[in-house]
Design brief:
This protein is of the alpha/beta class. The chain has a single domain, classed as Alpha-Beta Barrel (TIM Barrel), CATH 3.20.20.100. Helices cover about 40% and strands about 15% of the residues. The chain has an eight-stranded parallel barrel, surrounded by four helices. Helix 1 crosses helix 2, helix 2 packs parallel to helix 3 and helix 4 crosses helix 5. The relative contact order is 0.13. The mean pLDDT is about 95. The protein binds NADP nicotinamide-adenine-dinucleotide phosphate. NADP nicotinamide-adenine-dinucleotide phosphate (NAP) binds next to strand 10 and helix 10.
Length: about 325
């Protein structure tokens, strides 16, 4: 018997309108940056996707280079789609990106038309799809004219290979310029994907207010600071954690006593709210509907369940918000 998704899957998830578009996105989205490559256990990856969908997570986020090796996450997700979710394609928002190094030579990186067109074609093949829902430019390219990159995003939408386009890692100034070009071309930017967590608040410095003003959605990646803003590292570095397995992305040296002392205080506050720290970190990002979605990662089904549980308490008292600020000082 194949996979049958839960009939209750839309009962508890919250869906937020993405900027001023027609699209709603789940308040918690799931990203496949880690734990979907060829070095991880395929059945665990598959179980995470199925459970996420059962919990109402309709949005899965990829990039051309997610693996390892680069491309493997798209391939593995393509397999899971084929095995379990192909009948539910119209219930899914699948995003991918290009902008980082993908293949050797001058055409496999950054933001040229040559790279973006070829990369999305490759992604669609790996995913086994005719189109993605959102195609992002993954990072600004200081050398390619912004007009070239943006008109390529517009072209890919007109070709039917992507329904919407997004920007990732663009700062306030480059976002402003890119939004204006996309608007002029008639393919307004749907969403901006930025790093944002209690430990990384650069987006509060102008970006979020710009997006709100322009009616563009916002999705925060690494909302748990790659695992730091959870109970994961309270008692050392577990052998199965990201810090133990890929120091390139979460360096054990950065998990200092001082940082853990802060995490411990946040964890205590979370427990007074009857939440895990991961749940409080997610609820804090979603406070006052300042974001469309948070984009979590996970290595286990139980982590996804815990994160989605954040939606049961998104409210903070002014005193709790003050306490969080004091702890983060
Ligand atoms: N646009 C960009 O440039 C960019 C960059 C980075 C990420 N992203 C996107 O954002 C997604 C999420 O990034 P991220 O994985 O860094 O996000 P994250 O949610 O900050 O960190 C995820 C890690 O936190 C731990 N975790 C998650 N839930 C937990 C829970 N309830 N309790 C305890 N630990 C928990 C797990 O660590 P362990 O693995 O150690 O168990 C998990 O792998 C990516 O998959 C990708 O789609 C985009």
């Amino acid at each position: 018997m194949g996979y049958l998704p839960s009939k209750q899957r839309y009962a508890n998830m919250k869906y937020n309108r993405c900027g001023r578009s027609g699209l709603k996105l789940p308040a918690v989205a799931f990203g496949l940056w880690h734990n979907f490559g060829d070095t991880t256990h395929f059945e665990n990856s598959r179980a995470m996707i199925r459970r996420a969908f059962d919990l109402g997570i309709t949005h899965f986020d990829l990039a051309n280079n997610y693996g390892p090796p680069p491309g493997a996450a798209e391939e593995n997700f393509g397999r899971i789609l084929k095995q379990d979710l192909h009948r539910y394609r119209d219930e899914l928002i699948i995003s991918t990106k290009a902008g980082y190094l993908m293949w050797p030579g001058p055409y496999g990186d950054w933001g040229s038309k040559k790279y973006l067109v070829a990369s999305l074609d490759q992604s669609l093949k790996r995913l086994g799809l005719d189109y993605v829902d959102i195609f992002y430019h993954h990072r600004p390219d200081p050398e390619t004219p912004l007009e070239e990159t943006m008109s390529t995003l517009d072209l890919l939408v007109r070709q039917g290979k992507a329904l919407y386009v997004g920007l990732s890692n663009y700062d306030v100034e480059s976002t402003k310029k890119a939004l204006a070009i996309l608007k002029e071309l008639g393919t307004p930017c749907l969403i901006h994907q930025m790093s944002y967590s209690m430990f990384n608040r650069w987006a509060e410095d102008g970006l979020l207010s710009l997006l709100k003003e322009e009616g563009v959605g916002s999705i925060a990646y690494s909302p748990l600071a790659k695992g730091l803003l959870t109970n994961r590292y309270l008692n050392g570095i577990p052998a199965d954690s990201r810090a133990a397995s890929s120091s390139r992305f979460l360096n054990p040296q950065d998990i200092t006593e001082e940082k853990i002392a802060t995490v411990r205080r946040l964890n205590e506050l979370a427990s007074t709210r009857d939440q895990s720290l991961a749940q409080m970190a997610i609820a804090w990002l979603l406070r006052e509907e300042q974001l469309t979605s948070v984009l979590i990662g996970a290595s286990k089904v139980s982590q996804i369940e815990d994160c989605v549980g954040a939606l049961e308490n998104l409210d903070f008292t002014p005193a709790e918000l003050q306490q969080i600020e004091a702890i983060l000082q």
